[in-house]
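Case study 2.
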Amino acid sequence: MSEAVTLPAGATLGKSYEYGLDANLGTYADPIWQPFRRISGFNPTDTPTTQDAQTYDDLGAQNQDVTGWSWTLAFNALVNRLLSSGLYLPEIEYLNARAGDPDAKGELAVADVRWYHKPEMGTPNPNDAFRGFCTVAKTRNNTGPEGAIEQFGYTLTGKGPKTKIPNPFLGWDVTAPKVTGVTPEGAGTTDIVTITGTGLLGATAVTFDGLPADDFLPVNGSTLIATLPSDGAGPIPVVVTTPGGVSTAFTFTRGA
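Prediction:
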């Protein structure tokens, strides 16, 4: 008879790459979560903060109470640039604006991120999902003359405690939305417009020129209707956010 310890039925080994990390491009109350793409080496570290609770009853042995937890997230990111603008991907620009920018001081140096179990298969761990404020340190990992792929190394250091959140991972088949059209052209304040594209079902936010829509309703994966907020006339960016990510801005010409 085998003496090996058996695993429960349906158990599987976890993988080192089964983590997701998102940056909040919106506000704390109305987050716009942008997933980090092409990361590796993700290493969350929790360190207890302790206070001496030693008394005579411990007979000289140490006695430390845990009073809180500090946390850091370290990872590498392949750096992709947009050929049209020269900018990095939005999640990279978000961290870079808080790491080394001369104006990155005080609250301008604080990032809002969430990280969570993102399994290759099966149900994500509901107890392994967190959100927190942090400061950002950045290094450029590839500096040699051989033309290696550009890569940044980031260390995010918690600013206060992390908080537990519901695991947001919905599965690998959920992709970022894409906006391909907004009609009718020239619509103005309080008018209803139709947004067309892909991956629009489950939209959690719609913005026009950075302003949230007064109201919106996803009809299906390719159609969404929204009410325009007050703003001036002219070309504006339209952005849709879903659990799968944030769409690239689509330019729409609105009326007053």
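The CA atoms of residues 29 and 154 lie 25 Å apart.
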